[in-house]
Design a protein that fits this description.
Number of helices: 8
Shape: globular
Radius of gyration: 20 Å
Largest sheet: 2 strands, antiparallel
Low-confidence stretches: 165-179
Mean pLDDT: 78
Strand order of the largest sheet: 1-3
Strand content: under 5%
Number of domains: 2
Length: 179
């Protein structure tokens, strides 16, 4: 079996793979909306020109899906639905909650953004375990951080992003290296 990377496939095949991977990622990880992986119509626009996939506001898309899912969840709960379904990126919600919780000496102490570049699987498991243990106490040890403390934190871009240049430069490099 031959292992193939972007350098051993032609440009059209590369574009098809990019589109397919984007759809798969969105339906299963980035913004799942149901128990099955269906492709929302708005995603089809994104993959019509795969070279421009990196120019979409994916963070905004994730937040929009989460917001719509939360509204649907609330409505189903208010209507007394026998079962409730949540949608959207659970990973985003996990990291958001972990970042805003002050775990004191266990907190991830970094100014690196995006935070997903700093969290490891082990660190996420450690913090979730602490949170679950904390729920059993009558007086929780870990509190949410204040908006002021979060707003005043210093931030620096992850080196892979900081050195990447503009989206157009990355796309130009990608087009040249995959031709």
């Amino acid at each position: 079996m031959q292992i193939c990377d972007a350098y051993c496939i032609n440009r059209e095949t590369w574009k098809r793979c990019l589109a397919a991977y984007t759809l798969l990622s969105c339906c299963t990880l980035v913004s799942p909306r149901a128990a099955n992986a269906n492709v929302p119509d708005e995603l089809l626009r994104c993959v019509q020109n795969p070279v421009e996939i990196g120019e979409y506001d994916w963070a905004g898309y994730i937040l929009d899906v989460l917001r719509a899912s939360a509204e649907r969840f609330q409505q189903e709960m208010n209507e007394g639905a026998p079962s409730l379904t949540s949608g959207g990126s659970n990973l985003f919600l996990q990291l958001y909650c972990l970042e805003w919780t002050d775990f004191r000496k266990h907190s991830l102490d970094t100014d690196l953004v995006p935070k997903i570049g700093a969290y490891t699987t082990e660190k996420i498991k450690e913090l979730i375990k602490l949170e679950m243990q904390d729920r059993l106490l009558k007086s929780p040890r870990y509190k949410m951080r204040s908006v002021e403390s979060m707003a005043s934190r210093a931030r620096r871009l992850h080196p892979l992003i900081a050195g990447a240049g503009t989206v157009k430069e990355v796309r130009a490099f990608s087009v040249i290296s995959h031709s």
